[in-house]
Amino acid sequence: MTTPNGKPSSPLRAPPHILALLERLHTLSLAQEPETNQAISGLLELRKRDPAEGTRALNKLMSDKFVALDKEKCEFVYQLILSTGAKNVVEAGTSYGVSTIYLALAVGQNFPGGEGGGGEEDQGKVIATENEPEKISRAKGYWQEAGEAVTRHVELREGDLLTTLQKDLPEIDLLLLDIWTPLALPTLKLVQPHMRRGTVVVTDNTVSAGPLYEDFLQYVNDPDGPFRSLTLPYSGGLELSVFMP
Ligand SMILES: C[S@@+](CC[C@H](N)C(=O)[O-])C[C@H]1O[C@@H](n2cnc3c(N)ncnc32)[C@H](O)[C@@H]1O
């Protein structure tokens, strides 16, 4: 949809240097995609024949790739955070920190903290997770470039998220699962005890990677389970699940 001045509509409110940074990062990420996708399909075949070697090669290939969440999906999650008044967000899979910037801006706009004399506990927080040291360092650099509007709302947990998310989680309002598919269900189950009625879970590429999400999709669509789920028609599919125990 375009606005009357011909620009695409966007809910995002941020200073010009952050908007320019996001444009730059999405462009870099998109430029990597065709070659990366081609290499992935080859390695998925290899993984079927030789799971250990295929997994090793896939991890190596992806160790320096952006694979940022599409801009439209980032804007959707940003809008979702504003509309639900979310305060605490877990981002499973941070990479170079592109989606983190949207999440941090949104929780910061819901709960700026500090500004009204409130302390850290009064401010919105994104718990970001990444295990690739190079990506961690680049993400920190981009967040610094974005400035305080982002950095004051991000807590980065470095290392395997199945370990780093095991303790010190507040009540979580939104979980973004933008992670390798085998980790989606274990991560959901790890965060689930910290959810409240109405906590939202957004999971990327549940249509394009459908077969790899089989266990996850069964779990969130179980009519006797605690989630209600809907597949949104974004590119590759975006699953929107709500915790309703
Ligand atoms: C799809 S990318 C995330 C993209 C990011 N959300 C964005 O929009 O910029 C998934 C990331 O999860 C990271 N990852 C994979 N396994 C992980 C694990 N066990 N613990 C923490 N991070 C992991 C990968 O290194 C990769 O950077």
UniProtKB/TrEMBL annotation:
One of its GO terms (biological process) is methylation. One of its GO terms (molecular function) is O-methyltransferase activity. Pfam families: Methyltransf_24 (PF13578). SUPFAM superfamilies: S-adenosyl-L-methionine-dependent methyltransferases. Keywords: Methyltransferase, S-adenosyl-L-methionine, Transferase. InterPro entries: SAM-dependent_MTases_sf (IPR029063), SAM_O-MeTrfase (IPR002935). It comes from the Eukaryota. PANTHER family: PUTATIVE (AFU_ORTHOLOGUE AFUA_6G01830)-RELATED. Belongs to the class I-like SAM-binding methyltransferase superfamily. Cation-dependent O-methyltransferase family. This is O-methyltransferase. It comes from Talaromyces rugulosus. The lineage of its organism: Eukaryota, Fungi, Dikarya, Ascomycota, Pezizomycotina.
